[in-house]
């Protein structure tokens, strides 16, 4: 009897073990995380970080136009041994917003670097410091206040606005030009809206032509028509290539000075614009030896045509 039951017991044992195995596999499958059922890698990205809004105008710096002197081959001559000063690329550094900073203005005027100074017409120290600049042979410009695109930025007293009549624009511009002693040219203060308007620019440039002044386009907008209109009117003109102190630290300004030197080497000449600021003063003082070795700093009148 026991011999007959043995095969059945073995069969039942096998079936029982098989059932346990199947149950175990199903349990493991149900406990597996959903992500492991699909062979896919999911990359989670963190939240997008948005920087703080800037509280100062951000000036776009469009790519430089074609070289102004295609035949000029001395752009790299500044680093050749024995190269004379006349062979060095030329750089003009304009210090804008002069007339409001007596101490900084005086210290910048005292630098033996052939800087060009652009004075705001209605600033309290403009007449005095423009006289000092003239006595020490610096180029002097009128920093003509013009309407900015963002109405939050106030160009200051004597500003030219597109809403003004041509007669009022001419009157304001003439007064501004007369308030800066010994000026030989003009560049725009702000003006990202005004300089895009050709008829409005023509009114101002006509006064410059009468006085024999040149015009430097500060290029506060890549759509400025100032330099193009000046050329059409037969006025000597040039344009800013590098803003030196959008970030007001000595390190950043020295970096921008390096970009200015690089632009001068590439194009033979370049114009940079900075402002009366402690960081600018420190950068010019600390970086001047490196700068002077590679370029010749000239008054901006030498770079307009």
Please, could you describe this protein's structure?
The protein is of the alpha/beta class and 305 residues long. The chain has one domain: TIM Barrel (Alpha-Beta Barrel), CATH 3.20.20.370. 40% of the residues lie in helices and 14% in strands. The chain contains nine helices and nine strands. It has helices at residues 2-31, 34-37, 102-110, 126-135, 166-178, 198-211, 226-232, 250-267, 278-294; strands at residues 90-98, 116-119, 140-146, 185-190, 214-217, 237-239, 242-243, 269-274, 296-297. Strands 1, 2, 3, 4, 5, 6, 7, 8 and 9 form a nine-stranded parallel sheet that branches. Helix 3 (102-110) links the parallel strand 1 and strand 2. Helix 5 packs across helix 6 and helix 8 (250-267) runs parallel beside helix 9. The longest helix is centred in the first third of the chain and has 30 residues, at 2-31. InterPro entries: Divergent_DAC, Glyco_hydro/deAcase_b/a-brl. It comes from hydrothermal vent metagenome. Residues 27-86 are annotated as: Disordered.
CATH architecture: Alpha-Beta Barrel
User: Could you list the spans in which at least 5 consecutive residues all have pLDDT below 50?
Assistant: 22-83
Biggest sheet character: 9 strands, parallel
The number of helical runs is 9
Give the fraction of residues assigned to helices: 40-55%
Q: Which class of secondary structure composition applies to the elements?
A: alpha/beta
- What is the 3D form? extended
The CATH superfamily bears the name Glycoside hydrolase/deacetylase
Number-wise, the strands total 9
Number of domains: 1
**Rg calculated over all Cα atoms:** 34 Å
